[in-house]
Each structure stands twice: as C-alpha cells, then as structure tokens.
Amino acid sequence: MKRKVDQKDVRAETSVGIECNENNESNEAIEVTDPYLISIVNAIEQLTESWSAKLKNGGIKLQLAVQIGSSLSVSQQEWLMEFLQDFHVRDLEMSKVLHAFATEIPEWATRQILQLFRKAERVKVVLIARNDVMDQLEQRMRQMEYDFWQGKLPTDENELEHVLSTWQRELAAWEEEASHERNTYNRTYGDSSRSSVNAPSAGKDLTFHTLIGVPEEADAKQVRKQSRKLLRVLHPDHGGSAYLFTWVKEAYDAYQASRICRESPTAR
C-alpha cells in the first residue's frame, strides 16, 4: 500500500520507509511505503480541526492524537473535546475515555465509570493489609475491567444505570470499611496528615505481621513478599501515600534488624 503525503504536514526521515524525490523541496510530496507510518498518517488526517490544532501546538502527544483519529468519528471527537473541557481526566484514564466514546457509552456513564475506578483505587490503598477483603475487592475490580473493555455493559441506559448503581453500592460498602480501618489507624498512631518524616513507629500491641496482613507464623520469605506488595501499592509514584509508605518501610526495616539480631551467633 502506498500513499502520497504532503511533506509540510508530516515530518519523517528516509531511513524509516520514506522515499524522497531528489530535490527534497518543501513543496514536494514524499512517498510513504511503511505500513506503520501509513496508519499514523491516516489517523492524523482523520482528526478534526480542533484536535489537529492541539497536536500542532503541542497540546497532546502524537500517540494520543493517533488513537483519537483512528478510533473516533468526527462527531465523537467533538464530543470528546467538550467532555475534557468539563471533566478532568488523568493521563492514565485516557484509554478508558477513548474506549467509552468509541463504544458509545453515554457521557454520564463515562464519568461515573471513571469515578468508580478512582474510588476503587483509593479503597484498595487503605485495605491493602486486609487480605480477605482485598481478594474480594480485586476480584470485583477485575470483573469491572472485563465488562468495560469487552463490551459487556448494557446498551440500554436504564439497565446500564442499574449496573453502575450496583457497583456503586458495593464500593460504598468497601469504602465504609476502609473508613473504619483509617479511623482505627488514626486513633492508634495519630493523624496521617502529618509529615511522613515524622511517621510513627508501630504500637506495642501490633506486631509487624499483623500490620502487613500475614499470619504470625509466616516465615521471612512470606513477610518479605507481602511487604514488597504493600510498599508497591503505597508508593507515591503509584498514587499511594508517602506517609504510609514511609511508615511501613520503617516498620519493615525495624523488623528486619530485629530478625537479623535474633538470628546472629552472638545473640545465642
């Protein structure tokens, strides 16, 4: 497949499947032969004027522009532009938004779905040490993800509203449990809004095993595995709490130091 592309609209180099005429003047056409580049050019040419302007001005990245041009019709692109002006969407959520618009999920439902996933992530951070509850929550989130991406959500808006309301009630129950966990934590260790530099040490009545959600008889390997899982979720780069991350990290370091001290020959 070959396609003539105006050089002033698409910047490319001859080393990636583009044949240039000898003069290579700015007003001459270049011939694109690479299928990957052809798909990119096709997608960009499908952008509306508003999205093309954002791409040229650096308002969006090329990858997102290609996704928009290749998956959304002109009217859908216009609706997306209006949607993003009224509702803040994080970069990691754009793929969900594009999928929702491409599959014609109503805008009200798209907003609610994003809010449900956000709430699920917040609840997950608080309940990470509760293995029993976490298994239920993660299973429900996987089902939510599957239904969303595989087009299993109802097309009838009344039925769709019922499904989303059911998700909302389930998450509300988990959120209430998470709130109870948070309040218990604050009563025991203080307000988590304080600086992570002054993270408290674990209370005398709470062992490190209990803190991270493993049995008291768990060995060092199990403790290390669960600690790493917990720290990954709590890491600020992954949307977690710097305060809780530091607290758990310091508790793990104290546990490790105590274990090494007990197992050293001089301690026997």
UniProtKB/TrEMBL annotation:
Keywords: Coiled coil, DNA replication, Stress response
Name listed for the protein in its UniProt record: J domain-containing protein
Coiled-coil regions, chain positions: 157-184
Domain of life: Bacteria
SMART domains: DnaJ
GO terms, biological process: DNA replication
Chain ranges of the J domain: 207-268
